[in-house]
């Protein structure tokens, strides 16, 4: 093994062999715990932190590619090497990418239930084995006789030139630059010549070894950035090189390696010119590959997979509660797709901002089971989405995904916590030690709201301080929907056998206190949405969440205040969700890296 790690501004020397590459990369920047958060918990005040331009952001960690980014990169590399798309797909199939582990929403101190998949820096044996297996499979497939000349070069199969030094160097510089996302120098060529060995013929096995080592290099598996020169007035902050910037852009928008136009702009250095850089940002924003990236952001931000399984409970109360709408297991996925389609619509189809997302009365339910719950016909995805019953289901928070939970209980506490933390970025103090964390059980003589109030809002209790003012009022605002997401004005009450024994009117009146000291009364979801939008906290929190997704770390509200404010202001000014993708790429911080 041969490893050195040079200072910022100098060429990296990160070299190892095969599966050990991941282990080396995890420690290459001195961070013994790649998954550990690098920023303190966010500020919980209602005020926007002041932007101080000479603040230095937190040092960047050496981040690995997510599994999505890794798989996309492998696929695009193969298509770069092979002109026949069908043959490229056959090689990709041989790589066995499906056996790789999935990224998870990484638990951090600020969000113990998991935040963004891009924060997942877990390094386990399954990652090491998976990368080595893919590299082995791929290198063997690419060097098969039918592909050898195309992948390595015609010189490798020419009887007159054979495997001369020029042929080998040409391959390493061409293929290696795209794999490692940076120029290849003489030291690189010499290193891979050692990997190849002393064979004087064009050996497919030896070339396969070179490809496999490249695909297991830290430069491939991780975002290795060194920068060029220190930013004036910001010690430890370096401008990225053209190739590093090209990689940041491509993985930001597309979650894969740079395409040919972006790579060429890095090669000739024109990407560092502001007008060229901005043109690539706009081009990439409108590319269809960006759509999938934004969908992953929304899925993580809204924690869509936390929706419990539906249709599996044998509880007689649940089955009586659901009645003829007893869901199939497929309804869960339909609820997830409904919300992701809604986010897609207001990001790309009818570009808009958070006001539209949180007040829309359009249905995006494509399947009849969910459309029936909404009281509309299914959306075909081609014509304008159907209008929901007027005044009944305004905005994102009234969609079934945020109301259903696999039980007959509406869980207002969970709903309140979700809005407070995910939509407003407010911290909630931990519950007192030893408190019962189970949701209050349904009763046959009280509504869910009454039960929750009786359990959590007793005067002078430790629970009341948070529940009565911070949590419960936000959850009560959507109690006019049951635990399947159906609209209701009364709550049906059941005994333990599932027999309905009565009903009681729903009360959605509350004081949500979206901002500290605001005692405005809300009479339901429409009022809650209005208060959320008027507060300005929705845009500020959305900006924070997109910052976390982009930079792969939690924000520091003092050191990152400038970029957070720029994102928030752009979202408010443009009323366009997609504009944030471009705006964050245009911030100075996106084009820089901080070192200890």
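Sequence proposed for the structure above (596 residues):
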């Amino acid at each position: 093994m041969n490893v050195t790690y040079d200072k910022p501004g100098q060429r990296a020397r990160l070299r190892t062999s095969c599966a050990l590459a991941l282990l080396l990369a995890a420690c290459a920047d001195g961070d013994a715990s790649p998954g550990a958060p690098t920023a303190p918990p966010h500020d919980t005040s209602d005020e926007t932190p002041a932007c101080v331009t000479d603040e230095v952001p937190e040092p960047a960690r050496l981040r690995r590619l997510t599994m999505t980014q890794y798989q996309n990169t492998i696929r695009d590399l193969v298509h770069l090497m092979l002109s026949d798309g069908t043959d490229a797909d056959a090689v990709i199939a041989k790589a066995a990418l499906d056996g790789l582990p999935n990224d998870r929403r990484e638990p951090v101190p600020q969000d113990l239930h998991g935040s963004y998949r891009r924060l997942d820096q877990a390094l386990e044996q399954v990652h090491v084995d998976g990368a080595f297996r893919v590299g082995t499979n791929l290198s063997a497939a690419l060097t098969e006789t039918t592909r050898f000349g195309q992948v390595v070069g015609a010189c490798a199969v020419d009887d007159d030139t054979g495997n001369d030094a020029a042929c080998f160097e040409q391959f390493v510089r061409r293929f290696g630059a795209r794999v490692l996302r940076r120029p290849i120098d003489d030291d690189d060529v010499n290193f891979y010549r050692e990997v190849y060995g002393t064979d004087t013929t064009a050996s497919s096995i030896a070339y396969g070894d070179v490809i496999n080592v490249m695909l297991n290099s830290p430069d491939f598996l991780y975002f290795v950035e060194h920068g060029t020169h220190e930013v004036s007035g910001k010690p430890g902050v370096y401008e990225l090189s053209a190739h590093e910037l090209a990689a940041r852009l491509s993985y930001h928008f597309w979650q894969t390696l740079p395409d040919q136009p972006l790579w060429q702009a890095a090669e000739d250095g024109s990407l560092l010119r502001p007008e060229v850089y901005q043109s690539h940002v706009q081009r990439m924003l409108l590319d269809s590959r960006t759509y999938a990236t934004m969908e992953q952001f929304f899925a993580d931000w809204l924690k869509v997979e936390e929706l419990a399984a539906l249709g599996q409970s044998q509880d007689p109360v649940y089955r009586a509660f659901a009645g003829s709408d007893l869901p199939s297991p497929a309804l869960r996925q339909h609820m997830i797709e409904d919300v992701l389609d809604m986010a897609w619509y207001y990001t790309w189809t009818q570009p808009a901002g958070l006001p539209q997302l949180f007040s829309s009365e359009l249905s995006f339910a494509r399947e009849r089971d969910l459309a029936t719950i909404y009281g509309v016909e299914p959306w075909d995805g081609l014509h304008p989405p159907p209008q929901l019953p007027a005044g009944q289901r305004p905005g994102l928070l009234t969609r079934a995904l945020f109301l259903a939970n696999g039980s007959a209980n509406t869980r207002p506490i969970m709903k309140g916590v979700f809005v407070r933390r995910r939509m407003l970025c407010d911290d909630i103090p931990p519950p007192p030690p030893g408190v019962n964390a189970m949701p209050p059980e349904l009763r046959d003589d009280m509504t869910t709201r009454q039960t929750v109030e009786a359990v959590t809002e007793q005067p002078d209790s430790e629970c009341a301080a948070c529940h009565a003012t911070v949590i419960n009022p936000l959850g009560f605002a959507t109690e006019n929907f049951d635990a399947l997401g159906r609209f209701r004005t009364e709550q049906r009450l059941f005994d333990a056998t599932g027999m309905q024994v009565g009903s009681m009117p729903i009360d959605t009146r509350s004081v949500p206190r979206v901002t500290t000291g605001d005692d405005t009364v809300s009479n339901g979801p429409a009022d809650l949405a209005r208060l959320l939008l008027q507060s300005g906290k929705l845009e500020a929190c959305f900006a924070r969440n997109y910052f976390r997704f982009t930079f792969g770390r939690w924000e520091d509200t003092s050191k990152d205040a400038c970029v957070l404010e720029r994102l928030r202001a752009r979202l408010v000014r443009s009323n366009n969700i997609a504009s944030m993708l471009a705006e964050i790429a245009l911030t100075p911080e996106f084009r820089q890296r901080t070192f200890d």
